[in-house]
């Protein structure tokens, strides 16, 4: 290794170095970890210094500023030590020692451009007010002149909505209210259900109204479900038509099947009042009457119940009433 810098340069580096940086800088200098790459934009010297582990190189800018003293070194580095403590880190000190060892001096950095001077408010030229001549005193003397001067602002004309846009908006509103109805039916919120139902003026499809019936039947509130089903069957003819047709859900169950399976006796009465057919089969070929008859088997005790099942009695009575009516019709 070549000889160390002269005493004045060494004192300059020691003066600006952070505590502990001088010793590490000498180690980096011995390992030949410093490389001069050129000049920086402000007239300083640009160098690259390898880290102690050797896996990363830090860029260092060296120089002297007018603000700094004659013996001070100004070095900027991207390492954590410089960002946290400032001063002269080990990389900056190593680069400065390498430059001094090579017999070069630190160049003086160019002075930074001064910030633009903001003129005081008293020295600024007065702003020229721009006023609308229409509203200057004495410029308008009659309402007719105002109408003539402002033809576009008097009665703004808005374009009429197109039929397609209007239909798209109504369809979006319909989908929104149907989702609101499904939520209210599931929760048994009959007040909110009928409030949103009144906002849909056009008829609801049988599939959609059957889905509302299923949502209410399988809802968490028994009393609310009964009010929703009874009110929906009374308010909407398409709901009664869906109950008579036995529109099935994704599992193939009609609303009457769902009411029997969910133990909704009053809902069964409401559906039968709307002429729901107990003999319609579900997706597995089982009618609502047969499903009610299977309820008589008490699986918890393993024997038959002695008392009559209310669902089976209700559906069997509905079948008995519908049989004479069908004979008279034929």
List keywords for this structure.
single chain, alpha+beta, four-stranded antiparallel beta sheet, two-stranded antiparallel ribbon, 15 helices, 6 strands, 48% helix, rod-shaped, disordered N terminus
Structure description:
By secondary structure, this protein is an alpha+beta fold. It is 48% helix and 8% strand. The strands form two sheets. It has a four-stranded antiparallel beta sheet with strand order 1-2-3-4, with helices on one face. Helix 7 (163-187) packs parallel to helix 9 and helix 10 (222-235) packs across helix 11 (237-245). The longest helix has 25 residues, at 163-187.
SSE layout and pairings?
Elements: H1 7-16, H2 21-30, E1 34-39, E2 45-50, E3 57-63, E4 74-77, H3 80-85, H4 90-101, H5 143-149, H6 151-154, H7 163-187, H8 190-197, H9 206-217, H10 222-235, H11 237-245, H12 255-261, H13 265-273, H14 288-294, E5 297-298, E6 303-304, H15 310-329
Antiparallel strand pairs: 1-2, 2-3, 3-4, 5-6
Helix pairs in contact: 1-4, 2-4, 7-8, 7-9, 9-11, 10-11, 10-13, 12-13, 13-15, 14-15
Summarize it.
This protein has 330 residues and is α+β, with helices and mostly antiparallel strands.
At the fourth CATH level, what is the homologous superfamily of the largest domain? Answer: Ankyrin repeat-containing domain
The secondary-structure element order is HHEEEEHHHHHHHHHHHHEEH
The DSSP helix count reads: 15
CATH topology of the largest domain: Serine Threonine Protein Phosphatase 5, Tetratricopeptide repeat
Q: Shape, please?
A: rod-shaped
Spans of at least 5 consecutive residues with low confidence? 1-5, 129-141, 149-158, 301-306
What's the mean pLDDT score? Answer: 75
């Amino acid at each position: 290794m070549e000889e160390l810098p002269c005493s004045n340069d060494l004192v300059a580096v020691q003066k600006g170095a952070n505590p502990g940086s001088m010793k590490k800088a000498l180690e980096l200098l011995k390992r030949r970890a410093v490389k001069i790459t050129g000049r920086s934009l402000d007239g300083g010297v640009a160098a690259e210094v390898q880290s102690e582990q050797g896996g990363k190189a830090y860029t260092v800018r060296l120089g002297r500023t007018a603000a700094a003293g004659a013996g001070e070194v100004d070095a900027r580095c991207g390492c954590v030590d410089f960002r946290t403590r400032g001063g002269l880190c080990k990389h900056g000190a190593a680069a400065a020692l390498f430059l001094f060892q090579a017999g070069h001096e630190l160049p003086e950095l160019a002075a930074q451009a001064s910030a633009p001077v903001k003129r005081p408010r008293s020295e600024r030229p007065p702003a020229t007010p721009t006023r609308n001549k229409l509203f200057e005193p004495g410029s308008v003397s009659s309402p007719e002149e105002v109408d003539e001067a402002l033809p576009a602002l008097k009665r703004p004309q808005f374009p009429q909505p197109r039929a397609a846009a209007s239909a798209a908006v109504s369809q979006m509103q319909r989908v929104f209210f149907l989702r609101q109805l499904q939520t209210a039916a599931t929760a048994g919120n009959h007040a909110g259900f009928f409030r949103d139902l009144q906002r849909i003026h056009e008829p609801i499809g049988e599939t959609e109204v059957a889905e509302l019936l299923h949502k209410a039947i399988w809802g968490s509130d028994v009393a609310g479900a009964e009010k929703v089903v009874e009110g929906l069957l009374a308010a909407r003819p398409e709901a009664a038509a869906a109950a008579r047709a036995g529109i099935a859900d994704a599992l193939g169950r009609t609303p009457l099947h769902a009411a029997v399976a969910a133990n909704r006796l009053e809902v069964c009465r409401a559906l039968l009042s709307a002429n729901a057919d107990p003999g319609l089969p579900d997706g597995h070929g089982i009618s609502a009457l047969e499903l009610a008859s299977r309820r008589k088997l008490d699986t918890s005790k393993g024997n038959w119940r002695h008392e009559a099942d209310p669902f089976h009695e209700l559906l069997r009575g509905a079948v008995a009433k519908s049989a004479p009516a069908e004979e008279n019709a034929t």
